């Protein structure tokens, strides 16, 4: 295109130069003026008249030409136009589509000291190049700003250094070919009231290996063993079935800590809570068999003797979970004597927080961090997460994002 303009410019300049030379010649002796001067010098009348007749039309024509003078070439380039028809077709064929908006998956997301946020794209969505996750702490006293992560090339992100007992909002957007989608709907997560306590089930605590089955020390299942079947031969008029206990492999002797687990919905009876090392020795070293008529107030049976155990601080605290219910112990508070107030739907995820210095234990619905019940506990010695199972059932420890173990000493007995 530039080459064409240069050639056209050269041609126009040549035409203008030729036109200038033509008009310049009229003013010089070699031109029309010089010729007229020579005619005026003619002395012969007949020759003068003859020559003047030829000169007059030429002068008249030249005069008219000067009056209606126009350059031989147009100085503008207005007639030049770029043909962009092909480019227009190509641009119309290009699709500037906006990526689909991702959706935060609350069922897979977990928030503790660190937050694992997962998201999905709607069905039939095309792949994206990357994602950006943003989060901010909700604070009534001060305005907070959104914090953005680096580019994320998967469908999840771990966010570190979250404050305990705080509410955070999360949102995510997708990007494809430098075009960003709108933000996803904001989702709020509440962090636990204390740092996460990491442990596994203790496979050396002396639990009943016939009725409790461990799976990688992260889950335990209660099943009826052969000893229970053989013991039924001695049963004539009734029996007492004891709880089978198992504990965490790490104890607590200071600080405030929080852990989460799931109880299988089909579980018949599960006791969960905390117990001291001295109490655990009693439970594991003095087991009750199936034909024993003696009563253990920790068994989970409702009776009058069990009510009094909550009047004073004990070195253990357990709540009953089973048949899809979360049962607040009788006599724990004046407001929980009614059955409808004591029996709650079993949460999908249950959290326990132990404050060793305050001597207090809290039970939470871990999905929304709502406290379901709390009470005083006598924190003497080392306290351990404790679980008791009866009949069919199972407990699964939550997969903790922070995989480091706390540096406590003290072994379960």
Concise structural overview:
This protein has helices at 2-27, 32-40, 45-67, 85-93, 226-231, 277-285, 304-307, 339-342, and strands spanning 103-104, 110-111, 115-120, 130-137, 147-148, 156-159, 167-176, 179-180, 187-190, 212-215, 219-222, 244-247, 256-263, 269-276, 316-322, 325-327, 343-345, 350-355, 360-365, 370-376, 383-390, 393-397. The protein is of the alpha+beta class.
Strand order of the largest sheet: 10-11-22-13-18-19-20
Number of strands: 22
Strand content: 25-35%
What structural class do the secondary elements suggest?
A: alpha+beta
Helix run count: 8
Shape: rod-shaped
User: Which value, in Å, is the CA radius of gyration?
Assistant: 47 Å
Order of helices and strands: HHHHEEEEEEEEEEEHEEEHHEEHEEEEEE
Helical proportion, percent range: 10-25%
The biggest beta sheet reads: 7 strands, antiparallel
Characterization of the model:
By secondary structure, the protein is of the alpha+beta class. The chain contains eight helices and 22 strands. The protein has helices at residues 2-27, 32-40, 45-67, 85-93, 226-231, 277-285, 304-307, 339-342; strands at 103-104, 110-111, 115-120, 130-137, 147-148, 156-159, 167-176, 179-180, 187-190, 212-215, 219-222, 244-247, 256-263, 269-276, 316-322, 325-327, 343-345, 350-355, 360-365, 370-376, 383-390, 393-397. A hairpin with a 3-residue loop joins strand 2 (110-111) and strand 3 (115-120). 24% of the residues are buried.
């Amino acid at each position: 295109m530039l080459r064409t303009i240069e050639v056209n410019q050269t041609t126009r300049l040549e035409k203008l130069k030729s036109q200038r030379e033509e008009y310049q010649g009229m003013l010089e002796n070699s031109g029309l003026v010089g010729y007229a001067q020579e005619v005026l010098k003619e002395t012969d009348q007949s020759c003068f008249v003859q020559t003047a007749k030829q000169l007059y039309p030429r002068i008249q024509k030249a005069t008219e030409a000067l009056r209606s003078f126009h350059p031989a070439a147009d100085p503008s380039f207005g007639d030049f136009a770029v043909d962009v028809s092909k480019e227009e077709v190509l641009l119309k064929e290009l699709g500037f589509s906006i990526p689909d908006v991702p959706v935060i998956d609350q069922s897979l997301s977990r928030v503790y000291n660190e937050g694992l946020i997962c998201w999905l794209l709607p069905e039939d969505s095309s792949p994206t190049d990357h994602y950006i996750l943003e989060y901010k702490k909700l604070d009534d006293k001060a305005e907070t700003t959104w914090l953005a992560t680096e580019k994320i090339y998967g469908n999840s992100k771990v966010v570190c250094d979250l404050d305990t007992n705080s509410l955070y909002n999360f949102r995510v957007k997708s990007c494809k070919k430098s075009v960003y989608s709108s933000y996803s709907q904001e989702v709020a997560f509440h962090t636990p009231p204390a740092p996460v306590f990491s442990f596994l089930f203790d496979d050396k605590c002396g639990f009943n290996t016939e009725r409790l089955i461990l799976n990688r020390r992260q889950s335990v299942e209660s099943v009826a063993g052969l000893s229970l079947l053989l013991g039924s031969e001695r049963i004539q008029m009734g029996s007492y079935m004891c709880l089978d206990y198992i504990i965490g492999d790490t104890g607590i002797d200071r600080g405030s800590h929080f852990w989460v687990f799931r109880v299988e919905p089909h579980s018949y009876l599960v006791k969960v809570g905390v117990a001291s090392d001295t109490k655990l020795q009693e439970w594991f070293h003095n087991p009750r068999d199936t034909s024993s008529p003696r009563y253990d107030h920790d068994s989970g049976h409702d009776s009058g003797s069990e009510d009094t155990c909550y009047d004073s601080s004990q070195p253990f605290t357990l709540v009953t979970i089973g048949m899809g219910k979360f049962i607040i112990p009788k006599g724990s508070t004046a407001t929980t004597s009614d059955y409808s107030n004591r029996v709650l739907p079993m949460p999908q995820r249950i959290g326990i927080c132990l404050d060793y210095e305050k001597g207090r234990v809290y039970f939470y619905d871990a999905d929304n961090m709502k406290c379901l019940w709390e009470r005083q506990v006598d924190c003497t010695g080392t306290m351990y997460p404790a679980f008791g199972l009866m009949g069919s059932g199972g407990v699964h420890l939550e997969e903790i994002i922070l995989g480091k173990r706390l540096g406590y000493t003290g072994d379960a007995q």
